[in-house]
Design brief:
Largest interface: A-B, 34 and 33 residues
Number of helices of chain A: 19
Helix content of chain B: over 70%
Shape of chain A: globular
Number of strands of chain B: 6
Number of domains of chain A: 1
Shape of chain B: globular
Strand order of the largest sheet of chain A: 1-2
Strand content of chain A: under 5%
Distance between the termini of chain B: 35 Å
Strand order of the largest sheet of chain B: 1-2
Structural class of chain B: mainly alpha
Number of helices of chain B: 21
Radius of gyration of chain B: 22 Å
Oligomer: heterodimer
Largest sheet of chain A: 2 strands, antiparallel
Chain lengths: 490, 517
């Protein structure tokens, strides 16, 4: 039997999370080392899956299947394709770097890492699930620890409010999707939750058109789709750094990914019918998100709204239902995940030292934190779609896809590029350059070597994908081909 | 040897990035070492470019030294490099000015490592534009060059100066200037980006050689429900505006005086010397071949803008008190001739006059690169000593700094277009070529040429002549050996082209005859 690498990836965080709970509270170093070990193994295995995925063969690979509740047609069924393999790698990288930069968490680190790892298990699970029930199962597992992580370790001012808002939004979203999923289960008449089987269910066009919006929007809430996006900046801001990284970096991809997997792939006729409408919502995401980011005074809110704008591009890529758009969206999910993790790591490092995130009160951090400054600039360049970085590689095909469907949307959406440049440069100029306020002089310390490892790893990935897109794009393309086949070769 | 010849363009393109990578690992306190590594590193592309120049076969049509590699297969974009006579000229200009600019930056003391790192990346970005034969790759390098330039202005720009924004908030002038530079250029390239995407969708390839063949022929039918001719006209203007901002053509020039004035000396040298040429190069490489019909249709409008740039640029320069701003506006004036030549060639493609005008335009790009870099450098030399750019603070400096004064006069005369120096040759060619095509506009632009003389003499008069400003006696030192080393090659080139232009004009002419004749 082949080594069950996906199961190991999925359950390593949960197992280590449980083990960490057994370590005595005071032994913080051991707790952290255990967490780091788990994260490193998960990342290494994810990288192994990513690089040994056979692009030429495409399809689902590393598949494992065990009966779970045969009476209901539920099985434990996992595998990765070209869309999910990069996302598994993304989760591994964000998990590893998240642990690195959380080294300084001093308040109950044991529980913190345990919850974070349960979250990671949920996320890995969704990305590899090939069974609809399993997908929901892991999806809820991923959402639940988020509440505790924000409410307990979050920013004191808004944490209860944000945690509540986030959880309610996401639960309502997933309940709506669940209803849709159950409808699909019963209507198929196949008596199985196997998504590959459901792909062949031949639902009637009316059925698909009716249920598509429920399923797609339900999941897309977690992807931050307008007008259901406003849990996300609040949630990002209130969460502790590593959780923000996870949240914006990975969790939002979960929503987009599930919307793709369940919405578009299982209900392709519905997708074709509704996408001209949905693309307009995503346009609002992209442009409006960028404008709102421009006027924020809280450093972390800027990044929060930038995520709304960039996730809009992912969903816009989906909405084109064209090869370029979907490929771009796949790369954008990865690129944005790494980029936003980098951003939130940087914001956290600044906040930990300055204890404020008000942009007008900050300044001059480049002199004391050069690494952080460079990392933020790299993230910023990715975010404004500067060629040479992964953001360009992702956004360019998305725009080409949009050109193929509704050209005027491409023209309007392009405005966001300039606005993004404006807000990134504004933050760079006000926070990192300029004159450092008196009260900080002499009090700001440089970051630790562990932080540097995290920043370098994230930045390097953004540059490598940007300069050498062939490392990722053919993989995503192979996954997209499958989607196009389901859409009827469109 | 074969290995070098087969990958010559890649070597030229990536050597600066490689040297920049080496700099990262040098200790930041070792300023001297960093400077020398950067300088010697930037001499390698120059040597390679000279080798390229010598081994370039002028009689062979089409692009030479081509390299094709898979880059972004999903959207049919490849790493495709190649050069013709126009690009070789521009590559030579870039690789020549970069070492000189690095040598001119030896006086930079803060963050030398980051400075040199960015400078070398800037060189790579500019070279990439001149070498690319793939539209997407072209855009990649086009945008990429912005980033280092932004930081060079933002971080190493002049310390003094404040701008009051609307709303009353005060901002450092260099922050304002760099932001304006970035946003103007990005907004300009937005249209370019959209047009490139559109072309990619319509043509299914970004390879310029293919597009040169297919795109101009595309004329009937509809695209996106709109007649093809309308779509192409829109795309044409998107390209034109992006390049016009970079050149810069009136009325898109307003970022330039700010950026130039605030940039560090070497930054201004490269900005005026090479970055503006990217715009002109864009017109020659992309606009004329891709949109021959539209270019012809709107040539009058382009000629009008060019004439306005020549006249207003000269008048604005004449009105300045700030020496650096004066030189900055002179760029608007001189680059106007480049666009005028291009506009004429667009209207009368294929005629002898068009080729003459284009020869003038390309040579003017090269010449302006030399003289503008020289002028900015000389302004920088005096600024470093006096910490003032206000012309009213100078006066009668000639006796204090006779060598500097002589060099300033020489370079100014080249810029003014004195026969015997380089500027005359190219401006004469442009005017000679354009006259039969746009007689009225050429005549109008002569007014601009008159004021060119006026502002250059004004600059000379207020610095070197007139009553001596006593405060500089004993404080103003003569130009030093390092600075002489920077300006001498430029002066030699100016004189060389002025006296015997055939060595460079021959190559440009043959290329233009093949491309547009």
């Amino acid at each position: 039997m082949q080594f069950p690498v996906l199961s190991v990836i999925v359950f390593i965080p949960a197992v280590f999370g449980a083990l960490i709970l057994l370590i005595p509270q005071e032994r913080k170093t051991e707790i952290r080392m255990a967490a780091l070990t788990a994260a490193f193994i998960a990342m290494a295995l994810a990288a192994w899956v990513y690089f040994s995925y056979d692009v030429a063969a495409s399809g689902y690979q590393f598949v494992e299947r065990y009966q779970w509740l045969p009476a209901l047609g539920i099985s434990y069924y996992v595998g990765v394709d070209g869309i999910s393999a990069p996302l598994v790698l993304l989760t591994g990288v964000v998990m590893f770097t998240g642990v690195l930069i959380s080294w300084g968490v001093d308040d109950r680190p044991r529980e913190f890492f345990a919850f974070l790892f349960i979250l990671a298990t949920g996320v890995f699970g969704v990305f590899v699930a090939l069974d609809l029930f399993g997908l929901f199962f892991f999806y809820e597992i991923a959402v639940f620890p988020m509440y505790l992580l924000i409410a307990i370790w979050g920013w004191k001012v808004t944490r209860e409010y944000a945690a509540m808002k986030l959880t309610l939004y996401l639960f309502i979203g997933s309940v709506i999707s669940l209803v849709g999923a159950l409808a699909m289960y019963f209507a198929s008449g196949l008596g199985t939750f196997d998504m590959l089987a459901l792909e062949t269910a031949n639902y009637s066009v009316t059925f698909q058109r009716f249920w598509f919006p429920f399923v797609f929007i339900g999941f897309a809430v977690l992807g931050g789709i307008f007008p259901f996006h406003n849990w996300s900046p609040d949630g990002h801001v209130a969460a502790p750094t590593a959780v923000s990284m996870f949240h914006a970096g990975v969790l939002m991809k979960l929503g987009a990914f599930a919307a793709l997997r369940v919405g578009i792939m299982l209900l392709p006729e519905g997708a074709k019918f509704w996408m001209p409408v949905i693309i307009i919502f995503t346009l609002v995401n992209v442009v409006y998100g960028a404008f709102i980011a421009l006027v924020q005074t809280d450093f972390k809110y800027v990044i929060g709204f930038s995520s709304v704008s960039h996730m809009g591009l992912v969903l816009m890529g989906f909405a084109t239902l064209k090869a370029e758009g979907l490929t771009g969206a796949g790369v954008q999910m990865f690129s944005h995940g790494i980029m936003t993790a980098l951003f939130f790591a940087v914001v956290g490092m600044v906040y930990d030292r300055a204890h404020t995130r008000e942009i007008p009160k900050l300044g001059g951090f480049a002199t004391v934190m050069p690494w952080v400054t460079v990392a933020f600039i790299i993230g910023g360049l990715v975010s404004m779609g500067m060629p040479g970085f992964s953001g360009f590689i992702a956004e360019f095909p998305i725009f080409m896809g949009v050109w193929r469907t509704q050209p005027w949307i491409a023209i309007v959406a392009a405005i966001s590029i300039v606005i993004t440049a404006a807000y990134v440069l504004r933050v760079v100029g006000r926070v990192f350059f300029g004159k450092m306020p008196e009260e900080f002089v002499g009090h700001i310390t440089n970051i630790t070597p562990l932080d540097k490892v995290a920043l370098v790893l994230l930045s390097a990935i953004l540059i490598i994908v940007g300069v050498y897109p062939s490392i990722m794009v053919p993989l995503v393309e192979s996954g997209v081909e499958n989607i196009l086949r389901l859409l009827g070769g469109a | 040897m074969n290995l070098i010849e087969n990958n010559l363009l890649s070597l030229i393109l990536f050597t600066p990035a490689f040297v920049a990578g080496v700099l990262v690992f040098l200790p930041r306190e070792e300023k001297g070492l960093i400077r020398w590594v950067a300088l010697l590193g930037s001499l390698i592309p120059l040597a390679l470019a000279i080798f390229l120049w010598l081994s370039f076969d002028t009689n062979e049509p089409g692009f030479q030294f081509q390299e094709v590699q898979i880059w972004y297969a999903a959207i049919q974009s490849s790493y495709h490099l190649g050069v013709d006579g126009i690009s070789v000229t521009m590559v030579l200009l870039t690789t020549l000015l970069t070492p000189l600019a690095i040598l001119a930056s030896y006086s930079i003391q803060e963050n030398v490592k980051s400075y040199m790192f960015l400078f070398l990346l800037l060189e790579m970005g500019m070279l990439g534009v001149f070498l690319s034969l793939d539209l997407l790759l072209f855009f990649v390098f086009w945008e990429f060059g912005l980033v280092p330039m932004y930081f060079l202005i933002n971080q190493w720009g002049s310390e003094k100066g404040e701008r009051t924004l609307w709303g009353g908030r005060k901002m450092k002038a260099r922050t304002y200037a760099s932001f304006k530079f970035m946003i103007f250029t990005m907004a300009g390239s937005l249209g370019l980006l959209l047009a490139i995407q559109m072309i990619g969708v319509v043509a299914g390839t970004f390879d310029m050689l293919v597009l040169f063949d297919t795109l101009p022929g595309l004329s009937s039918g509809t695209l996106f429900g709109i007649p093809v001719s309308t779509v192409k006209a829109l795309a044409f203007w998107a390209f034109v505006i992006a390049f016009a901002i970079k050149v810069p053509v009136w009325p898109f020039h307003t970022w330039l005086p700010d950026a130039h004035t605030e940039a560090p000396t070497a930054g201004s040298m490269i900005l005026a010397g090479v970055l503006l040429k990217l715009g002109g190069y864009g017109f020659l490489r992309l606009v004329l071949p891709l949109y021959p019909v539209e270019s012809r249709q709107y040539a009058g409008a382009l000629a009008f803008l060019a004439t306005m740039a020549i006249i207003f640029g000269a008048l604005a320069a004449w009105g300045q008190r700030d020496f650096k701003r004066l030189v900055a506006y002179s760029s608007v004036n001189h680059m106007g001739f480049v666009l005028l030549g291009i506009a004429a060639a667009a209207l009368a493609a294929g005629t002898e006059n068009a080729v003459l005008a284009l020869n003038g335009a390309v040579l003017q790009m090269f010449n302006h690169g030399l003289s503008a870099a020289g002028m900015f450098f000389l302004v920088g030399v005096i600024y470093e000593r006096t910490h003032s750019r206000d012309l009213n603070d100078y006066g009668g400096l000639f006796p204090l700094v006779p060598v500097y004064g002589g060099i300033l006069i020489f370079t100014s005369m080249a810029s003014l277009g004195l026969p015997g120096l380089n500027g005359f040759i190219s401006e004469f060619l442009v005017v000679r070529g354009v006259w039969p095509i746009f007689t009225f506009f050429t005549a109008l632009s002569m007014i601009g040429l008159f004021f060119t003389g006026a502002y250059i003499l004004k600059g000379l008069k207020m610095t070197l002549h007139g009553p001596l400003n006593k405060r500089w006696v004993g404080h103003l030192s003569e130009i030093n050996a390092r600075e002489l080393l920077v300006i001498t090659p430029l002066m030699v080139m100016m004189l060389w082209i002025g006296v015997w232009p055939a060595w460079i004009l021959d190559l440009i002419n043959k290329t233009n005859v093949m491309l547009f004749g």
